[in-house]
């Protein structure tokens, strides 16, 4: 019964909405009596409507009227849709721009970034190390039309996107302002490399391409480069550790012919590329603006070094040359430094672990002091640096702009160490000094005393495994008490097991003067361990006065239970966040 009344009420409501043009309105008006007040809803249908409610022609008229209205609405919608389609065809790119600026597009992009825990940025898309999947790449590709101002895409360290790059590259025409594309360690496949190569012609503004640590690129570099056009704007090309082959070296040489603006070329850790270094070196003349050349661990040999030196005559703008980790070039500097000496703008020279011979040292002693702009020199892990009678270290005095000197593991003798100490007196801008793994430093740190007094800019001092003794630590503290080493930020004293507990106590008691110290390492050698002695309390007291300290290395020091608890509670008690490496 209730269901029937509700149906009746709905039917009455529909009939109340019959337009005034109904032929029965004049009859209804005769029976209505007083009109309802404006704005009030009639509570009951009139008697005359009850009388006519059973007639089919009234229902039919209502139905016809509704069908007519629905037809008109649908027609109107179709017309609007046609107008939108016409506009999209006529307006072309301008339609894409308006779509990119639509709230819907922005909202989708914001949601995507928030899902990944990243802050949205319409110009710089930083999604490094976000555990992206192939599905994420597809979703990202669909968002590119909404990012017309995008200039940087960084997807590095996302191994899950390998094999899915094509979904992204086919949409890159929406971001033709793109300047930077970084895809480090993404497990790129041959298909990815091909699709990326095909995309080069639709990103004409690209300036930086970083594909490092993608081993599958090896042997396929030609797939990447075939679409590069002459006059390409690429300035930074990084292909570190990509398993490049000798054939890739030939492809790379061809690339150099079409990227005249190249400033940085990084081929590090591609041990087979050295076989084609002669071919590459011949085409380096096509990139005269090159500023950085990184060939660390590229399997270079003596003949490679000679070819490279010939190419240097065309690279007057070179600022950094790294040929470290190429052990087979040792003995090849005799005929390979003629043009090195002419690099007046060279600021960084890295020759560590090159197995230089004594004969090489003789040549380098004459060449390196001529590099008047040199700021960083790394000769580490070349044993003949320390044993050679040629005065290379003493001649560093002719390089007053030096800021970083690394001579670790060079078998320094007291004589060569003394020469270095004297040269350091003439290096007022020195910021980094690494003497680690040179046993002669222990007990002789006093030779460096005057140089450290003058080195007002020193920020990093590495003395790991130097056979330091208690007197050496006391000397360091004495320097600080006189106001020296005030800017020191990193101090490495690890693997100096000969220092007594008394020496460590003296050191930690005076440690508080290193107000800018951020890293300190006092770890013991892997083969040893010792109990923390009376100096532990001095250490904790000093830590409260070192506001910048963020990391403390204490490996193989054995803490008692109470000492460990005090160390664990230190950060909470003092509102600090020091990382203790114990």
Automatic annotation (TrEMBL):
**InterPro entries referenced in this protein's UniProt entry, alphabetically:** Leu-rich_rpt, LRC31, LRR_dom_sf
Provide the coiled-coil residue spans. none
Return the Basic and acidic residues bias intervals.
77-87
**One Pfam family from the UniProt entry?**
LRR_6
Question: What SUPFAM superfamilies does the database record attribute to this sequence?
Answer: RNI-like (SSF52047)
Question: Polar residues composition bias: which ranges?
Answer: 1-11
Ranges for region Disordered: 1-21, 62-104
What protein name applies here?
Leucine rich repeat containing 31
Species for this entry: Apteryx owenii
Q: Which lineage?
A: Eukaryota, Metazoa, Chordata, Craniata, Vertebrata
